[in-house]
């Protein structure tokens, strides 16, 4: 008998825990991941850990090195920019469709997210703002009904976890991005497809500008 997490639940738990460790800085690019250590840390079986590592390697968050095990994949600034360029095209599509297809409930949630984002910036609640940012992007994609775009964006966002975390921590970043997010919300809620796409493009263009800045020149 064992109390360790196993099966699909263990696999998902370990994968989510590794993603969180990357966001928080507990894991860094190039760091080697040892199955036994992860199993002990996360209270999971080695089988669940091995499957989680394979999932994260498929998402290009990790890489599996023959006879060496898994390690956190290095992502260059140039690759991060190219990923963001692809994200921009897809998020513009989703924003455009969401403006037309979003339900009343989804538009209401977007309005609430906007109000909560304003409050989070006013309060300096950066963790809350980051969570709201993530939910905003998820909800626009969800409202678009574009499942192919959603799956592709999930894959593109995997290697960007560390960059997104570092960018979110830059001084003044939430205040800079807030008007961009509010513009997306206003256009989608108002049903203006062209404005929604333009707002999504402007936001991702700014992300690219931030990635090109000297502060992002070192690998993360």
Automatic annotation (TrEMBL):
PROSITE patterns on file: HTH_GNTR (PS50949)
Family matches, as SMART domains: FCD, HTH_GNTR
Record has Cell membrane as a keyword: no
Residue ranges annotated for the HTH gntR-type domain, each copy included: 8-75
Keyword presence, Transmembrane: no
SUPFAM superfamilies reported in the protein's UniProt record: GntR ligand-binding domain-like, Winged helix' DNA-binding domain
Entry keyword set: DNA-binding, Transcription, Transcription regulation
Pfam families the record matches: FCD, GntR
GO molecular function per UniProt: DNA binding; DNA-binding transcription factor activity
Protein name: GntR family transcriptional regulator
């Amino acid at each position: 008998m064992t109390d360790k997490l196993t099966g699909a639940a263990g696999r998902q738990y370990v994968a989510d825990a590794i993603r969180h460790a990357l966001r928080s800085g507990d894991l860094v690019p190039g760091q080697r991941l040892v199955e036994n250590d992860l199993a002990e840390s996360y209270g999971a079986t080695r089988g669940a850990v091995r499957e989680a590592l394979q999932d994260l390697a498929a998402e290009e968050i990790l890489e599996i090195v023959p006879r060496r095990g898994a390690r956190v994949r290095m992502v260059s600034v140039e690759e991060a920019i190219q990923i963001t360029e692809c994200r921009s095209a897809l998020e513009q599509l989703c924003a455009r469709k969401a403006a037309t297809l979003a339900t009343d409930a989804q538009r209401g949630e977007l309005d609430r997210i906007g109000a909560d984002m304003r409050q989070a910036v006013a309060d300096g609640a950066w963790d809350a703002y980051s969570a709201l940012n993530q939910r905003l992007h998820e909800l626009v994609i969800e409202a678009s009904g574009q499942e192919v775009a959603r799956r592709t964006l999930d894959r593109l966002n995997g290697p960007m976890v560390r960059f997104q975390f570092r960018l979110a921590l830059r001084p003044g970043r939430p205040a800079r991005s807030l008007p961009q997010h509010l513009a997306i919300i206003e256009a989608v809620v108002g049903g203006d497809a062209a404005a929604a796409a333009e707002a999504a493009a402007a936001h991702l263009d700014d992300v690219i500008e931030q990635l090109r800045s000297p502060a992002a020149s070192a690998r993360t």
